Amino acid sequence: MQSQRDGAGGRASRLRRLQMAAAGLALGAAPAALADTLDGGDTAWVLSSTALVLFMTIPGLSLFYAGLVRTRNVLSVLMQCFAICCLVTILWLLVGYSLAFDAGNAFIGGLSKALFAGVGEEALSGTIPESAFATFQLTFAIITPALIVGGFAERMRFSSVLIFTTLWSLLVYAPICHWVWGGGWLQELGLMDFAGGTVVHITAGTAAVVAAITLGSRRGFPGTMMAPHNMTLTVAGAGMLWVGWFGFNGGSALAANGDAAMAITVTHISAAAGAFAWMVAEWLRFGKPSALGAVTGMVAGLGTITPASGFVGPAGALVIGLAAGIVCFGATNFMKRTLRIDDSLDVFPVHGIGGVLGTVLTGIFASKALGVFSGQEDIDIGAQLGVQAVGALATLAYTAIATFVILKVVDALTGNRVTEEQETEGLDLVLHNERGYDL
């Protein structure tokens, strides 16, 4: 499962090792049989990356989102992110990891890894302990449904959030993770997704906009001003996301090697370019740049580089980041001002559109044939673009349909949305009997 580049060039071996692991597990081979020996440096890097990715969710994403909502709902967002972390951890242990990474079929894994069966101290995945690999992947499974919170913020019942997260994690995240990284059909097709453009960003963005449409807009949208209540929290959370993303993308190499180093380099470049491009676009259109625009552009740059991070070079990352800032800025304004869809915290235009854009651009800038803009791979750009498009569209379509069905089921069980009176009073008091501020 480790990412090491084949001497002849060609496909990045993170995907190849995952395919080998899936094939070996299907034949009953022990994970250690697929590896050489434990590497302390690789293990230390993956363990550090695991901490960084969890840091992205708690406190990074939690504070980023909390600052963007109104004062009366700040605790509800923090509570949702925290509870999702706890819930998904339990689900991942029970069956999630097995469904995603155990050998099964082209669409879903088996159950032989349920409750981490066989994941002992001696079990290896490549040159790292399988427990490190499983826990690293857990942090991805946590942040993805946490991102969706931004689509229904300030109006969804807490009980419904928990039921939705349970069903969505098992019926959407785990299967798509298996498709792309666990030996499934998109991996076999040759989809290039280094760290989660499809698995994390397209799924989260699509689910968020489906939830926003299904639940309906917040009371007063778009006529009532709904400005962020605390940009200081948001900027602090954004900084934590930027730093944590080094583990998100760099750790996906599953080794302390050149792949990891380049992934961190291009991640930083794209984040900076995305922030700057959004800031300039906002400045030109509205006359003033904003802190909110800068940090949102940064997140767009990070999400868009994610699928490409282990495949592209620095100059390609600059183009991807600039494109992310401009395209996601346009998508955000189109959704808010033209479509009037209340995706409260802009999850779809930033993560969904960014994930699609990054997945497609990976098929171009991963190529070694672009001069200074070259990446690391020997690919046919035309053919690879077709594969990338199939992966992005399949992920988006399946996520949209499954999310809609799940929301309807949850609504029938508990009701998705709080009442108008509860929404006016604020979810902090109504659902948690607390206030975010008592000054």
Task: Write up this protein.
- The protein is mostly helical and 439 residues long.
- The protein is 68% helix and 1% strand.
- The protein has a two-stranded antiparallel sheet.
- Strand 1 and strand 2 (128-129) form a beta hairpin.
Taking all Cα atoms into account, the compactness measure Rg is: 21 Å
Q: What structural class should be given to the helix and strand makeup?
A: mainly alpha
Question: How much helix, percentage-wise, in residues?
Answer: 55-70%
| CATH superfamily placement | Ammonium transporter AmtB like domains
Features:
mainly alpha, 439 residues, Ammonium transporter fold, 1% strand, globular
Brief summary of the model shown:
The chain is an all-alpha fold and 439 residues long. It has 15 helices and 2 strands.
Which helices and strands appear, and what pairs or packs with what?
Layout: H1 13-26, H2 40-68, H3 74-101, E1 124-125, E2 128-129, H4 130-152, H5 158-181, H6 185-189, H7 197-215, H8 231-250, H9 258-286, H10 291-305, H11 314-339, H12 347-365, H13 381-414, H14 420-425, H15 427-432
Antiparallel strand pairs: 1-2
Helix pairs in contact: 2-3, 2-4, 2-8, 3-4, 3-5, 4-5, 4-7, 5-7, 5-13, 7-12, 7-13, 8-9, 8-10, 9-10, 9-11, 10-11, 10-12, 11-12, 12-13
